[in-house]
Write a structure and sequence with these properties.
binds fe (iii) ion; binds 7,8-dihydrobiopterin; 12 helices; globular; Phenylalanine Hydroxylase; alpha/beta; 4-stranded mixed β-sheet; 263 residues; 6 strands; two-stranded parallel ribbon
Length: 263
């Protein structure tokens, strides 16, 4: 992810792994109310538009009326799939990010957007990270894939494959669709946490919806400031795990070769 030049969070007290305290007591009543409004907006959309695994996990997550307490959720998350939440000030360097994922720790941003950012935000805030990413970490297959993705990220750093792996993350973990008996449903966090793109990705006839293919995804660029003009659809989370199991070294070589040929 191309981190913006000036990051919003407070990086003054980061640990070596960029972890900070969540300082749940510092959130204001207004911030809890804003989080609640975001939660209610998305919770009204999710039943028709999100995948069953997400809906099941969200309903099992009782996080109270406002901003969730990461330490409490981590307790049940650890029991479910061995994952836990690590509070971070915002975007963290790729290597730190991948290392957390490889160790079943999901970085969740501690700051919340401003009221005027209700509909759109550039950098991930606590609502995007928690509501969008955390519930699916309770699904064992998805949780295993996220851990393998982290390990793959650490390898990719030494194979100059980051650009390709970021695309894989973008078109699955952030903006992925999955097949269901009633048609496609969203599982990507960027969709689940978006007021407008969740419905657009599942119901609009504008975007292309293509069967997930690893090499096609890793060769596809993406836009960070507009709705996607294409989405990739997986059969199920098992496909994510299986299709990304091989060694990526030859895949990166082929992608670079194809880029050169196309240039
Ligand atoms: N840091 N906190 C945080 N959250 C992310 O989603 C994130 C990150 N750093 C890097 C990063 N994502 C990208 O490298 C991934 O999109 C691959
Ligand atoms: Fe995200």
């Amino acid at each position: 992810m191309d981190a913006p030049s000036t990051l919003r969070g407070d990086y003054r007290n980061i640990g070596p792994d960029y972890a900070v305290e969540q300082r749940w007591g510092d959130y204001s009543v207004g911030q809890h109310a804003l989080y609640r409004r975001l939660f209610e907006r998305q919770s009204a959309l999710v039943p028709q538009l999100a995948c069953a695994e997400y809906i099941r996990a969200l309903s099992a997550l009782d996080t109270g009326p406002g901003i969730p307490r990461f330490d409490l959720v981590s307790r049940s998350l650890r029991r479910a799939t061995g994952w836990e939440i690590v509070p971070v000030p915002g975007l963290v360097p790729d290597e730190v990010f991948f290392c957390h994922l490889a160790n079943r720790r999901f970085p969740v941003t501690v700051w919340l957007r401003k009221p005027e950012e209700f509909d759109y935000i550039v950098e991930p805030d606590v609502f995007h990270d928690f509501f969008g990413h955390v519930p699916l970490l309770f699904d064992p297959t998805y949780a295993d894939h996220m851990c393998e993705y982290g390990k793959g990220g650490l390898k990719a750093m030494n194979l100059d494959g980051l650009k390709y792996l970021a695309r894989l993350y973008w078109y699955t973990i952030e903006f992925g669709l999955v097949k269901s008996e009633d048609g496609v449903r969203a599982y990507g966090a960027g969709l689940i946490s978006s007021g407008g793109e969740l419905g657009y990705s599942v119901q609009s006839d504008k975007p292309a919806r293509r069967p997930f293919d690893l090499m096609t995804v890793m060769a596809s660029n993406y836009r960070i400031d507009a709705y996607q003009d294409q989405y990739f659809v997986i059969e199920d989370f098992g496909q994510l795990l299986q299709d990304t199991a091989p060694d990526f070294t030859p895949l990166y070589a082929k992608l670079r070769q194809d880029e050169k040929a196309a240039a």
